[in-house]
Amino acid sequence: MTISPSTAEARVAVIGCGARAGIAAHVASTGVGIVTALVDPDPAARERTAARLAETPAQFAGVGELLQSGTDVTAALVLTPDDTHAEVAIPLLEAGIAVFCEKPITITTADADRMLAAAARSGTPLYVGHNMRHMSVVTTMRDIISRGEIGAVKAIWCRHFVGHGGDYYFKDWHAERARGTGLLLQKGAHDIDVIHWLAGASTTRVTGMGGLTVYDQVTDRRDNSDRTMADWFSEDNWPPLAQRELNPVIDVEDLSMVQMQLEGGIFASYQQCHYTPDYWRNYTVIGTEGRLENFGDSAGGVVRVWNRRSGYRAEGDAEYPIVGDAGGHGDADQRTIAEFLDFAAHGGATATSPVAARNAVATAVAATESLRAGSVPRDVPPLDPAIASCFDGKATS
């Protein structure tokens, strides 16, 4: 469908033209939106993004310049580095512009609370792009749980093999605590959100553990701010200790885990490693009448269910194919953008929730604090009920 500025229901500004700016190409495919502005301090980044779009949007160096320009914008995709989300999104919300914020919503619980407060105060739609809620592997597991095939959920385990971790997270700002708090948050918040969604409950108490166990041994360092990930990513960068040109500062953990106590007597664990040879997620969900587990997390994989007592049976009692998501996040990204624009333009229902996104960050922050304090358990601070009540109707887990 061809969309013109006169027919588009959502006029979208793309804020941040870096690694995630490619999702802006999904706007036109929804049939209800058009990109009218690109915002980034780097002209070259803006031009790279513009080249991927059918539209010819106006270009700006910053959000202030955009807001002062009078450009017709009704929605914005905030795709800037994680530590800037609050300072970028809050002025947009206050201006009445619906915000899609890339996940994690922020890198601190306090900033997440500030952003939700701004959305509540202004009454402006806020959507956090937890696209994993639209991944087939996750929706398949949730459907199995909803049908009662494994009974009431009591435990969830997630192992995340981050095979591209060296290239994705240790060659730029992701490697610095000051920019992202830690990878238990930056990477883990996504899986923690899924754990909460599958459980139908949020975390109240955590114990974290982990360390910087491999990449601190790589002494070849470079400031890569003049390059993009496409310039350095290669599956030939192997084994991990053979990596080169890592970020000058590396003070985040490359191996981490957290034990979680959730509401309703549910327990969960999450583990991530950034130097595995393979890259995928493995979930196990145990209920009162069985368990499920995924093998692969994209097209071609399966979710298996066991609900008969026995010894080892690799095939399980039921098997469900994972369909879609052939390109990893691609299909889920498209569904997420479509959902956001429907929400912004029509108040449509969403699978995601700003409150749930905040709770994932609060859990990850507390887990990181626990990890760095010798695994001392930490309580997860709840959201102010007055703010939470403004998002009634949106799932909090």
UniProtKB/TrEMBL annotation:
Residues 11-130 form the Gfo/Idh/MocA-like oxidoreductase N-terminal domain. GO terms for molecular function: nucleotide binding. Keywords: NAD. Signal peptide: none annotated. It comes from Ruania alba. This is Predicted dehydrogenase. It comes from the Bacteria. Pfam families: GFO_IDH_MocA (PF01408), GFO_IDH_MocA_C3 (PF22725). Residues 139-293 form the GFO/IDH/MocA-like oxidoreductase domain.
